[in-house]
Structures are given as C-alpha cells and as structure tokens.
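Let's inspect one such protein example.
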Amino acid sequence: MKHNEPVSHIMSNELLTVHAAQKVSEVYTLLTENRIHHVPVVNGEKPIGLISSSDMMKLSLDAYGTPDSANAEYLDSQFTIEQVMSSDLVTIGADEPIRTAVEKLSTGTLHSLPVVGEDGMLVGIVTTTDLVKYLLDQY
C-alpha cells in the first residue's frame, strides 16, 4: 500500500455542484437522476456547504407516494439551499495523503470530503466509496 499517495489520486474531479440561489427541488433531481449521494454547494468555485441524499430524504414527501410535481413544489416552498446544506464543512487538500481522508471519514459522521486546492477552491470530492475502491485495488 502506498502510504503517502495524495487524495487527488482517488477523488472524483468531474463534479456536479449547486449554488445557494437554486431551488431545492433541483438538488433533489440532480441527486436522484445522477445517482450520487453528495453535492457541494459553491459560491463561484469556493465550497460553502454540502447536501447529501440523506439530507434530502428527510425533507421529501416521496415516502408518502406524493407525485413528483407536488414534491418539488413542497420542497421549493418550504426550504432554501442554505437551510438544507451542511455549512460546517470539513474539507481536505488535494495534496494531503489518503490516510488523512481515512482519519477524517472514520469518525462515522462524514461520508464525503470536498477536496480543495491551495487557493481554497473546489477541485474534487472524496467519498467513503472512493476509499473502499482504493482499498480493494490494494488487494
């Protein structure tokens, strides 16, 4: 196993992002249609928050068999991106070792880390799934 390999070797760098002015229903659609679990909220290219599929499931009326249009209307009338997103971001630098990502994610409270460059701008995301795939490649 390579002990000092940087996070940039396992992160996803083709990101879908949202900004605070978007509708919550757009985030819901983005997550479900692209089968992703985390979407960074950005101001320009700077990460300011993160929305997970778990965050959205807590708000959605899907479990009640509500039609998509009614669900979208409900989400947009009741919530803003800033209300839904986690703003206490834990990030990781692209050049930091994978071990640092493991340490941060092993607490069990996080499942993804926005990856930032030296300038603090978003360059990728690393998830627990990325770490499992990396581990699998080692064996």
